[in-house]
Fold this sequence. Notes:
- This protein is mostly beta strands.
- It contains one helix and two strands; from the N terminus they run αββ.
- The protein has one helix at residues 24-28; strands at 38-43, 48-53.
- The longest helix has 5 residues, at 24-28.
- The radius of gyration is 13 Å and the shape is globular.
Amino acid sequence: MNKNCIYLDTYVLQQDMRVRLPKSILSNLNVEKGKTKFDIYLDSDENALVFRIHEEGNGDSDCDE
């Protein structure tokens, strides 16, 4: 796992495929409930999902930045 990763919490994948995000992202990232979009990447080498804040006009799909 990347040494820059910070553990926030553990959540269950809901029956309808939702995952609740920890409230601490509101104070640690520049995000707003109901407005912020995330790009979701699969890192199959690490068996991990990566959520990145969506930037309009950014078609970059490179997960190794």
